[in-house]
Design goal:
Largest sheet: 6 strands, parallel
Shape: globular
Structural class: alpha/beta
Number of strands: 6
Strand content: 5-15%
Bound molecules: 3-methylbut-3-enyl trihydrogen diphosphate, magnesium ion
Distance between the termini: 29 Å
Number of domains: 1
Helix content: 40-55%
Oligomer: single chain
CATH topology: Undecaprenyl pyrophosphate synthetase
Radius of gyration: 19 Å
Number of helices: 8
């Protein structure tokens, strides 16, 4: 039996977050430039997005570029920005055909102008799609996001639109870029690294973490289904004891 058949459709995670990692090493292993790894990684993104739509995952969030990735060699950053622009433009029709809505989180204003415009255009064109929301985290970091939320709340207090006691978990969450999304139940990171790298720190308080040795360009929907099967074997206790569940 394949992993897809083992998935319990009644207990699917609503939101899956992915740190796609290992593009550079994948290319280097073959004696190629890192940018070849990023280009190949796009095929994995396409397959995973379609795999999510196929089984009914409502939210998929992919970490595509962190604020710290701006510190990479300028040629790599430029190649990545070109790749984002080309992919967003090439894939809009496929997103529509699969009823997938495109969304973006992060410091979008820091991206090249062309990227901002094409992203906005693709988001507008897919805005009414309902099967799945694909969120690209671009120039994203969780510390940036949390600081930004804190500043917005501080401003509201300063302007006397909010009292300090009104700053609840729900209120704080409403200032984050993931507003309107449930927290991810499952986070997958490829390439054998066991860290979060500044991704969704607030939202992942109770997320189940899944790590695989596979490098991102080798990751396909069967691997995603395997991760979901693994997730469904876990007991999520949220601080309680086993006997209290159900
Ligand atoms: C992930 O692959 C893609 C981005 C961070 C943009 P990497 O580029 O980090 O690949 P490795 O980890 O160096 O192999
Ligand atoms: C995390 O990968 C960021 C993205 C996948 C976009 P990195 O490759 O940048 O993370 P570190 O440096 O290994 O922690
Ligand atoms: Mg990496």
């Amino acid at each position: 039996m394949g992993f897809k058949e083992q998935i319990d459709k009644n207990r699917l995670p609503e939101h899956i977050a992915i740190i796609m990692d290992g593009n550079g090493r994948w290319a280097k292993n073959q004696g190629k430039f890192r940018s070849f790894g990023h280009e190949s990684g796009v095929l994995s993104v396409k397959d995973i997005v379609e795999g999510c739509a196929e089984i009914g995952i409502k939210y998929l969030t992919i970490y595509a570029f962190s604020t710290d990735n701006w510190n990479r060699p300028v040629e790599e950053v430029n190649a990545l920005m070109e790749l984002f622009i080309a992919t967003i433009n090439n894939e809009t029709d496929t997103l529509n055909a699969n009823n997938i809505r495109l969304n973006a989180i992060g410091d979008i204003a820091s991206l090249p102008q062309q990227c901002i415009e094409d992203l906005k255009s693709a988001m507008d064109k897919t805005a009414n799609n309902t099967t799945c929301t694909l969120t690209l985290a671009l120039s994203y970091s969780a510390k940036w996001e949390i600081l930004d939320a804190a500043k917005k709340l501080a401003k509201q207090v300063q302007d006397q639109q909010l009292t300090i006691d009104e700053i609840t978990e729900v209120k704080f969450s409403s200032q984050l870029t993931t507003v309107d999304m449930p927290d991810p139940e499952l986070m997958i990171r490829t390439s054998g690294e066991h860290r979060i790298s500044n991704f969704l720190l607030w939202q992942m308080a109770y997320t189940e973490l899944y790590f695989t040795e596979k490098l991102w360009p080798d990751f396909r929907r069967e691997d995603l289904f395997e991760a979901i099967v693994d997730y469904q074997k876990r007991e999520r206790r949220f601080g309680k004891i086993s006997e209290q569940l159900n």
